[in-house]
Structure formats: C-alpha cells, structure tokens
Prior knowledge:
alpha/beta; two-stranded antiparallel sheet; transmembrane; globular; four-stranded mixed sheet; 287 residues; single chain
Amino acid sequence: MRLNRFDPSNIRVRRGGSGGGFPGGGGGKLGCGSLLVVVIAALVFGVDPAQMLGTIENTQQQLPGQQTPQAETRDAEQVCGENAYSMEACNALASLNQTWQPLFQQANIPFEQPLLTFFSGSTSSGCGRAQSAMGPFYCPADEGIYIDTAFYDQLSRQLGAGGDFARYYVIAHEYGHHVQKLTGVEQQVRAAQQRNPGQANALQVKMELQADCYAGVWAGKNGNQIEPGDMEEGMTAASAIGDDTLMRNAGRSVQPEAFTHGTSAQRMQWLKRGIETGNEDACDTFN
C-alpha cells in the first residue's frame, strides 16, 4: 500500500519506557483491543490459547495509582524514524487520522487523535503495565495505541503473515477500537457485558470484528493507494489470527465459547467487507 509520508504536526506519537526481563512477566490489566495477545503467548511461549482467551481482562478504567503516560518531548520525526517499522506505522497513523477525522466532523462527534506509543519490552499505559508478549493493543483509558514493532517480525515468521498491508491492518484494527471509544460503542459493550456476563465473550467478538471491518473501511477509502497483493496479505493475516486457527495450531480443541476475536472466516469476512464497501455503516456487527 503506497502511503504518503506522515506530517509530523498531524500525529501524536511517543517513545514509551522500556524494560528488561521476561516479556510476559509483570502485572496490571490490559485494555481492550489486544489484536494478537494469544498469538505471541501460544506460539512463542507455549501458553494455552484457550486459557488465555478465557482469562484476559478488558477494562476502560485506569488502575488505582496508575499514572496516565505523558508524551515525551522527542518529536515525531525522531520517534518515527527509529526504524522502518515505526516509520511505516506513523505513515499509517497519519492516513488513519486523515480518513476518520472528517467523518467525525460530518457527524458532529468530537474527535481526538489517538496517541501511538512505541515501546520495547514493557511500558506503562493507562490500562496497566504493557508487555511486548501481549501484542499490540488499544487502551481506552488514555486513548492510546501501544506496539513493540519487533512484533511484526513474529507476525511474519511464526504466522506467515508478512507484507506491509498485514502490518497496516494491525494498526488500523487498533485504530478501529479508538473509533469505537469515540462513538460510545466501547462503553455500551462494557456496560452490556457487566449486565450479562454470560454474553461477555460473544459481545467482545462482535466488537473485534467491527474493528476488523473499520480497518478495511480505512483501506477501502484509500483504494487508490492499494497495490496488487495487499488484499491477499490482509486475508492471510486475518485468517492466521482467528480464534479457531490459533487453538488448532496450539494443538487444542476448538472451544467457541472461549472465542474473543472471532473465527478466521469471520475476521476475513469483515475485513473484506470493509475494504470492498469503504463504508463504515456496513460494519454493524451487532445486528
């Protein structure tokens, strides 16, 4: 996908703190929208994905005593220029802002850009301690997207989901959760999960699939920048991270009641719908 170079005055990025030690260690709850938390745990550290899918907590509340991260003084040029992956992510962030902000303005809904945080190992977030092993995620408490770009190498090597569009899909999916936060969908889902815990996972799946569709909408609205092979890269990535596929690859039985992100077929379906329609109204996964 041929994205334009980002405008440093039109994106919010920071370099988060880094920490050593085993990347799966530490404490704290993780905010909603961790795209590939199960991938890293299951394929890198041998963790049972079914167990993780059933126990990962999602929260929009800031933890007691947890400080919301503050952007560092380093400018976007320096932060985004650290490596090719961070530059790519910043280009995607700028494009996502340019695509979504006008839609919010047209709908008279207040818009705030998310803060993209690059980190290595671990860092603090408004939702608790972020760990590289958790994969990229969105924290609604501080409206931040968090990513260790080393994840992209694991995405390619261990899941066979390489290519720039697969990486853009990761950022665009997390941005989709930001859209849900701004429109109030995320808050409505959390309230519904509290009222009906038995439907918590099913509601989470619907929210994740909508974020997949929103990722596709961004690509569809920028169709003039799509290149041959992009669709295939996106479908490969979506298929690789379906709950059923992750469970099978880990040698476990498929447990639909433990799904939190949807099957491979569902993720491909909603990403494709977003790309082909370029219409956010086509992303109603709740009805």
